[in-house]
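Researcher: Quick test of sequence recovery. C-alpha cells follow.
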C-alpha cells in the first residue's frame, strides 16, 4: 500500500492534528502525516508535531507584502514535502482562490457546525443563541467560498439546556476527533473524490 503524503495546516492547539497523527499509526491507514505548517510560530500544535518527528514550518502572513506571496511560499513548503493531500485543522486564515484551486479535491477542512448551518466563526455561540437542539461538525472539501465545499462526513450532537459555548464546543470536538480521521481515510484510499 502506498500511503498518501499529508500536510496539516494549523494555527493553534492542534487537537484535530493530534487525532490525525494518532489515526495514521494504524498499519492499514492509507495516509501518513509528513508535515505540519502553522501561520503562528506560537501554535502549541507545532511542538506536538515535532515531538512525533514530523517536519514543521511556521510562516507569518504579516512578514509577506501580499497574501499571494505568503501563499506561494506555503505552496513551496508543501511541495518540498511532496504532499498529496492538505488537511486544514483550525487554520485561521482565509485562503485565496489560486491557492485553493491548486489543491482542489485534495484539501479538506473540519468545521465545528452542521454545514451549511453556521459558516464562519463563533458557531457554538450562534447555535445556542438560536436555541438549536442539535449541533455538530463537518469535514468538507475546501473551495474558494468560505466553508462551502461538499461535505464528506458530519456528526451530530445534542444541545443540552445547561450548555455553555465551552461545554458544547467540547462535545463537538470529541466528534471532530472521530470523523476527521475517518474522512481522511476515505479521501486517501480513493473511496471518495470531489467533482470540483
Ligand atoms: C476546531 O473546533 C475546528 O473545528 C475549528 O478550529 C478548531 C481547531 O481546534 N476549525 P484544534 O486546533 O484542532 O484543537
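Model:
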Amino acid at each position: 500500500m502506498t500511503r498518501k503524503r499529508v500536510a496539516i495546516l494549523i494555527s493553534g492547539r492542534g487537537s484535530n492534528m493530534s487525532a490525525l497523527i494518532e489515526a495514521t499509526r494504524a498499519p492499514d491507514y492509507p495516509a501518513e502525516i509528513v508535515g505540519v505548517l502553522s501561520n503562528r510560530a506560537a501554535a502549541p500544535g507545532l511542538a506536538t508535531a515535532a515531538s512525533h518527528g514530523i517536519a514543521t514550518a511556521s510562516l507569518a502572513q504579516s512578514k509577506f507584502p501580499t497574501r499571494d506571496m505568503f501563499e506561494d511560499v506555503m505552496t513551496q513548503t508543501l511541495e518540498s514535502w511532496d504532499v498529496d493531500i492538505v488537511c486544514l485543522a483550525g487554520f485561521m486564515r482565509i485562503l485565496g482562490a489560486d491557492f485553493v484551486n491548486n489543491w482542489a479535491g485534495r484539501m479538506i477542512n473540519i468545521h465545528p457546525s452542521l454545514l451549511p448551518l453556521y459558516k464562519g466563526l463563533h458557531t457554538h455561540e450562534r447555535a445556542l443563541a438560536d436555541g438549536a437542539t442539535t449541533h455538530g461538525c463537518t469535514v468538507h472539501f475546501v473551495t474558494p467560498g468560505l466553508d462551502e465545499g461538499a461535505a464528506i462526513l458530519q456528526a451530530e450532537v445534542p444541545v443540552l439546556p445547561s450548555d455553555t459555548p465551552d461545554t458544547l464546543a467540547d462535545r463537538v470536538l470529541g466528534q471532530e476527533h472521530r470523523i476527521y480521521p475517518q474522512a481522511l481515510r476515505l479521501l486517501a484510499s480513493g473511496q471518495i473524490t470531489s467533482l470540483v
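The helical segments are 15-23, 44-51, 67-80, 97-102, 123-129, 165-188.
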